Amino acid sequence: MASVSHIKCPNCGVFNINKEYCESCNTLISNQKKIKEKEEVVHQKEIEEAIIELEKETFIKKLRKHPFFLMRFFGLILHSVWFVLTVIGSFIAWFIAMVAAG
Ligand SMILES: [Zn+2]
Prior knowledge:
Layout: E1 6-8, E2 15-17, H1 31-64, H2 69-101
Helix pairs in contact: 1-2
């Protein structure tokens, strides 16, 4: 026997069989599709974050090769601060993901 999924629409309460969208009001009711859409959003965000971090890194690398000593020193401090922020940021992101998943 094939598996049949009965999903109650959260919007209008109509039961739908093997449907991704509600027959009555067209609300997205498929959990699998919801998870997939969420994953796509997360993936898109990860790409954007990676680009931003790459840009930051290039900026700091340039600064660290600066001919003026103070600018190199400033770059070193920026690099340390940025590293700490990245660690804290990724921990918070992980924590939020864990809470959201739980
Ligand atoms: Zn509905």
